[in-house]
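Backbones bend. To wit:
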Amino acid sequence: MVRFIVGKADLNISAAVRGEMIALLENNQNARKIVFIVPDQFEYETEKAVYRILEVKGLLKRFYEINITTFSRLCGEILEADGEHRPFADDIVKNIIMHKTLSQNKSSLSALNKVASYRGFCGKMVKTVSALKTSGITARDLELSLNAITKIDKSLSAEQPIIKKLYETDLLYTNYESLLSSYVDKLDITAMAAKIIAKNDCDVFCGADVFVDCFNDFTASQLQFLKTAMLKAENITFGFTSLRYSDRDVFKTPNGHISRLKREAEENDLSIEFVTEGIESRFSENSPLCGVSK
Protein backbone atom coordinates (compact mmCIF):
# COMPACT_ATOMS: atom_id res chain seq x y z
CA MET A 1 0.00 0.00 0.00
CA VAL A 2 1.25 3.47 -0.95
CA ARG A 3 -0.46 6.25 0.99
CA PHE A 4 -0.15 9.99 0.36
CA ILE A 5 -1.19 12.40 3.12
CA VAL A 6 -1.53 15.75 1.38
CA GLY A 7 -2.77 19.10 2.67
CA LYS A 8 -2.23 22.85 2.79
CA ALA A 9 0.31 24.61 4.99
CA ASP A 10 -2.23 25.30 7.72
CA LEU A 11 -2.82 21.58 8.23
CA ASN A 12 -0.63 19.47 10.51
CA ILE A 13 0.61 16.92 7.97
CA SER A 14 3.34 15.62 10.29
CA ALA A 15 0.81 14.92 13.05
CA ALA A 16 -1.32 13.02 10.53
CA VAL A 17 1.69 10.92 9.44
CA ARG A 18 2.60 10.17 13.06
CA GLY A 19 -1.06 9.34 13.72
CA GLU A 20 -0.97 6.70 10.96
CA MET A 21 2.10 5.17 12.57
CA ILE A 22 0.58 5.14 16.07
CA ALA A 23 -2.61 3.56 14.73
CA LEU A 24 -0.46 0.84 13.18
CA LEU A 25 1.01 0.01 16.58
CA GLU A 26 -2.36 0.19 18.35
CA ASN A 27 -3.98 -2.18 15.86
CA ASN A 28 -1.16 -4.72 15.85
CA GLN A 29 -0.03 -6.57 18.96
CA ASN A 30 2.89 -8.17 17.15
CA ALA A 31 6.12 -6.22 16.77
CA ARG A 32 6.34 -4.05 13.65
CA LYS A 33 9.34 -3.00 11.61
CA ILE A 34 8.92 0.77 11.16
CA VAL A 35 11.30 3.06 9.27
CA PHE A 36 10.54 6.77 9.65
CA ILE A 37 12.60 8.96 7.26
CA VAL A 38 12.87 12.71 7.87
CA PRO A 39 15.35 15.48 6.90
CA ASP A 40 18.44 15.80 9.11
CA GLN A 41 17.15 18.95 10.83
CA PHE A 42 13.88 17.27 11.86
CA GLU A 43 15.28 14.01 13.27
CA TYR A 44 15.50 15.09 16.92
CA GLU A 45 12.19 16.95 16.80
CA THR A 46 10.44 13.90 15.33
CA GLU A 47 11.96 11.58 17.94
CA LYS A 48 10.66 13.83 20.72
CA ALA A 49 7.17 14.03 19.21
CA VAL A 50 6.93 10.27 18.69
CA TYR A 51 8.26 9.54 22.20
CA ARG A 52 5.67 11.83 23.79
CA ILE A 53 2.77 10.33 21.83
CA LEU A 54 3.82 6.79 22.72
CA GLU A 55 4.10 7.80 26.37
CA VAL A 56 0.58 9.27 26.36
CA LYS A 57 -0.81 6.21 24.56
CA GLY A 58 0.90 3.79 26.91
CA LEU A 59 2.95 2.36 24.05
CA LEU A 60 6.40 3.50 25.15
CA LYS A 61 7.68 -0.06 25.36
CA ARG A 62 7.25 -0.29 21.57
CA PHE A 63 9.52 2.67 20.84
CA TYR A 64 12.26 0.22 19.89
CA GLU A 65 10.19 -0.89 16.88
CA ILE A 66 10.57 2.56 15.30
CA ASN A 67 13.74 3.56 13.48
CA ILE A 68 13.59 7.35 13.08
CA THR A 69 16.35 8.14 10.64
CA THR A 70 17.58 10.31 7.78
CA PHE A 71 18.66 9.52 4.23
CA SER A 72 22.33 10.04 5.05
CA ARG A 73 22.31 7.86 8.19
CA LEU A 74 20.13 5.10 6.74
CA CYS A 75 22.11 4.93 3.49
CA GLY A 76 25.39 4.91 5.41
CA GLU A 77 24.15 1.95 7.47
CA ILE A 78 23.05 0.13 4.30
CA LEU A 79 26.45 0.62 2.69
CA GLU A 80 28.28 -0.52 5.83
CA ALA A 81 26.10 -3.64 6.09
CA ASP A 82 26.91 -4.38 2.45
CA GLY A 83 30.64 -4.31 3.21
CA GLU A 84 31.50 -0.75 2.20
CA HIS A 85 34.32 0.50 4.42
CA ARG A 86 36.02 3.19 2.34
CA PRO A 87 36.40 6.53 4.14
CA PHE A 88 34.05 9.40 3.30
CA ALA A 89 35.48 12.27 1.27
CA ASP A 90 34.99 15.65 2.96
CA ASP A 91 35.32 19.02 1.21
CA ILE A 92 39.07 19.16 1.81
CA VAL A 93 39.63 15.76 0.21
CA LYS A 94 37.39 16.71 -2.74
CA ASN A 95 39.32 19.92 -3.38
CA ILE A 96 42.67 18.13 -3.19
CA ILE A 97 41.46 15.49 -5.66
CA MET A 98 40.04 18.12 -8.03
CA HIS A 99 43.36 20.01 -7.87
CA LYS A 100 45.16 16.79 -8.81
CA THR A 101 42.63 16.19 -11.60
CA LEU A 102 43.30 19.66 -13.06
CA SER A 103 47.07 19.18 -12.83
CA GLN A 104 46.93 15.83 -14.63
CA ASN A 105 44.60 17.03 -17.39
CA LYS A 106 45.70 20.64 -17.95
CA SER A 107 47.43 19.79 -21.23
CA SER A 108 44.15 18.33 -22.53
CA LEU A 109 42.23 21.54 -21.87
CA SER A 110 41.84 24.31 -24.42
CA ALA A 111 38.53 26.08 -23.75
CA LEU A 112 39.12 25.85 -19.99
CA ASN A 113 42.92 26.04 -20.06
CA LYS A 114 43.18 29.70 -19.07
CA VAL A 115 40.53 29.75 -16.34
CA ALA A 116 41.85 26.47 -14.94
CA SER A 117 44.81 28.45 -13.59
CA TYR A 118 42.63 30.99 -11.82
CA ARG A 119 42.36 30.96 -8.07
CA GLY A 120 39.04 29.46 -7.02
CA PHE A 121 38.46 27.47 -10.21
CA CYS A 122 39.14 24.21 -8.38
CA GLY A 123 36.39 24.93 -5.85
CA LYS A 124 33.98 25.95 -8.62
CA MET A 125 34.59 22.66 -10.43
CA VAL A 126 33.87 20.71 -7.22
CA LYS A 127 30.57 22.64 -6.93
CA THR A 128 29.78 21.94 -10.60
CA VAL A 129 30.36 18.21 -10.18
CA SER A 130 28.34 18.23 -6.95
CA ALA A 131 25.42 19.96 -8.73
CA LEU A 132 25.51 17.35 -11.51
CA LYS A 133 25.55 14.51 -8.97
CA THR A 134 22.67 16.02 -7.00
CA SER A 135 20.67 16.13 -10.23
CA GLY A 136 21.46 12.47 -10.87
CA ILE A 137 23.74 13.19 -13.86
CA THR A 138 26.85 11.01 -14.12
CA ALA A 139 29.89 11.79 -16.24
CA ARG A 140 28.73 9.13 -18.69
CA ASP A 141 25.27 10.72 -18.87
CA LEU A 142 26.85 14.09 -19.69
CA GLU A 143 29.02 12.56 -22.41
CA LEU A 144 26.11 10.73 -24.04
CA SER A 145 23.95 13.87 -23.93
CA LEU A 146 26.64 15.96 -25.58
CA ASN A 147 27.14 13.33 -28.28
CA ALA A 148 23.39 13.21 -28.90
CA ILE A 149 23.09 17.01 -29.10
CA THR A 150 25.90 17.40 -31.62
CA LYS A 151 24.50 14.52 -33.67
CA ILE A 152 20.93 15.86 -33.76
CA ASP A 153 21.80 19.52 -34.32
CA LYS A 154 24.37 19.81 -37.08
CA SER A 155 24.84 23.51 -36.30
CA LEU A 156 26.50 22.46 -33.06
CA SER A 157 29.96 20.96 -33.14
CA ALA A 158 32.53 19.85 -30.62
CA GLU A 159 34.66 22.84 -31.65
CA GLN A 160 32.14 25.46 -30.57
CA PRO A 161 33.26 27.15 -27.33
CA ILE A 162 30.25 26.21 -25.19
CA ILE A 163 30.25 22.59 -26.42
CA LYS A 164 34.00 22.33 -25.98
CA LYS A 165 33.71 23.64 -22.40
CA LEU A 166 31.06 21.04 -21.65
CA TYR A 167 33.19 18.24 -23.11
CA GLU A 168 36.15 19.40 -21.04
CA THR A 169 33.93 19.59 -17.95
CA ASP A 170 32.97 15.99 -18.66
CA LEU A 171 36.66 15.08 -19.02
CA LEU A 172 37.43 16.57 -15.62
CA TYR A 173 34.32 14.99 -14.08
CA THR A 174 35.33 11.53 -15.40
CA ASN A 175 38.90 11.75 -14.15
CA TYR A 176 37.85 13.30 -10.85
CA GLU A 177 35.51 10.35 -10.23
CA SER A 178 38.32 7.93 -11.04
CA LEU A 179 40.66 9.54 -8.50
CA LEU A 180 37.84 9.76 -5.94
CA SER A 181 37.16 6.02 -6.17
CA SER A 182 39.31 5.35 -3.09
CA TYR A 183 36.74 7.29 -1.09
CA VAL A 184 32.96 7.45 -0.81
CA ASP A 185 31.42 10.77 -1.80
CA LYS A 186 28.47 11.48 0.50
CA LEU A 187 26.61 12.74 -2.57
CA ASP A 188 26.79 9.19 -3.96
CA ILE A 189 25.65 7.19 -0.95
CA THR A 190 21.90 7.47 -1.63
CA ALA A 191 22.28 6.24 -5.21
CA MET A 192 24.62 3.47 -4.03
CA ALA A 193 22.16 2.43 -1.32
CA ALA A 194 19.28 2.41 -3.83
CA LYS A 195 21.19 -0.15 -5.91
CA ILE A 196 21.86 -2.28 -2.83
CA ILE A 197 18.24 -2.37 -1.62
CA ALA A 198 17.14 -3.34 -5.14
CA LYS A 199 18.97 -6.65 -4.73
CA ASN A 200 16.84 -9.68 -3.95
CA ASP A 201 18.91 -10.60 -0.90
CA CYS A 202 18.60 -7.16 0.74
CA ASP A 203 15.95 -7.21 3.49
CA VAL A 204 16.23 -3.63 4.81
CA PHE A 205 12.64 -2.85 3.82
CA CYS A 206 11.27 -6.39 3.70
CA GLY A 207 8.01 -6.42 5.69
CA ALA A 208 8.61 -2.83 6.82
CA ASP A 209 6.17 0.02 7.26
CA VAL A 210 7.90 3.13 5.93
CA PHE A 211 6.95 6.73 6.71
CA VAL A 212 8.47 9.73 4.89
CA ASP A 213 7.73 13.21 6.21
CA CYS A 214 8.86 16.87 6.39
CA PHE A 215 10.47 17.00 2.94
CA ASN A 216 9.89 19.95 0.61
CA ASP A 217 11.97 18.40 -2.14
CA PHE A 218 13.92 15.26 -3.06
CA THR A 219 17.13 14.89 -5.04
CA ALA A 220 17.07 12.53 -8.03
CA SER A 221 18.90 9.84 -6.03
CA GLN A 222 16.55 10.20 -3.04
CA LEU A 223 13.56 9.82 -5.33
CA GLN A 224 15.08 6.68 -6.86
CA PHE A 225 15.78 5.32 -3.38
CA LEU A 226 12.13 5.85 -2.38
CA LYS A 227 10.86 4.23 -5.59
CA THR A 228 12.97 1.16 -4.82
CA ALA A 229 11.90 1.12 -1.15
CA MET A 230 8.27 1.34 -2.27
CA LEU A 231 8.61 -1.98 -4.08
CA LYS A 232 10.17 -3.70 -1.07
CA ALA A 233 8.17 -2.31 1.85
CA GLU A 234 4.86 -3.69 3.05
CA ASN A 235 3.42 -0.17 3.29
CA ILE A 236 4.82 3.29 2.65
CA THR A 237 3.27 6.60 3.69
CA PHE A 238 4.32 10.01 2.37
CA GLY A 239 3.44 13.35 3.95
CA PHE A 240 3.34 16.34 1.58
CA THR A 241 2.38 19.95 2.15
CA SER A 242 0.71 20.78 -1.14
CA LEU A 243 -2.52 21.34 -3.03
CA ARG A 244 -3.23 18.56 -5.51
CA TYR A 245 -4.02 19.67 -9.06
CA SER A 246 -2.95 23.25 -8.30
CA ASP A 247 -0.84 24.96 -10.98
CA ARG A 248 0.65 27.49 -8.55
CA ASP A 249 4.46 27.56 -8.68
CA VAL A 250 4.79 26.90 -4.95
CA PHE A 251 3.15 23.48 -5.37
CA LYS A 252 4.89 22.37 -8.58
CA THR A 253 7.79 20.63 -6.83
CA PRO A 254 5.80 18.54 -4.31
CA ASN A 255 3.09 17.77 -6.88
CA GLY A 256 5.77 16.65 -9.32
CA HIS A 257 7.17 14.23 -6.73
CA ILE A 258 3.69 12.96 -5.90
CA SER A 259 3.06 12.28 -9.61
CA ARG A 260 6.35 10.41 -10.04
CA LEU A 261 5.85 8.26 -6.96
CA LYS A 262 2.21 7.59 -7.89
CA ARG A 263 3.21 6.58 -11.41
CA GLU A 264 5.84 4.17 -10.03
CA ALA A 265 3.21 2.60 -7.77
CA GLU A 266 0.73 2.28 -10.65
CA GLU A 267 3.32 0.69 -12.93
CA ASN A 268 3.99 -1.94 -10.26
CA ASP A 269 0.30 -2.56 -9.46
CA LEU A 270 0.56 -1.25 -5.90
CA SER A 271 -2.53 -0.05 -4.04
CA ILE A 272 -2.70 3.74 -3.72
CA GLU A 273 -4.61 5.86 -1.23
CA PHE A 274 -4.82 9.64 -0.85
CA VAL A 275 -5.68 11.18 2.52
CA THR A 276 -6.74 14.81 2.14
CA GLU A 277 -9.62 15.09 4.60
CA GLY A 278 -9.80 14.96 8.39
CA ILE A 279 -6.32 16.44 8.91
CA GLU A 280 -6.21 18.68 11.96
CA SER A 281 -5.18 22.33 11.70
CA ARG A 282 -1.85 23.58 13.00
CA PHE A 283 -3.56 26.60 14.54
CA SER A 284 -6.46 27.31 16.85
CA GLU A 285 -9.53 28.98 15.38
CA ASN A 286 -8.61 32.29 17.02
CA SER A 287 -5.02 32.27 15.84
CA PRO A 288 -4.06 35.14 13.48
CA LEU A 289 -2.14 32.52 11.48
CA CYS A 290 -5.26 30.46 10.85
CA GLY A 291 -5.57 31.78 7.31
CA VAL A 292 -1.87 31.59 6.48
CA SER A 293 -2.40 29.25 3.50
CA LYS A 294 -5.29 31.15 1.96
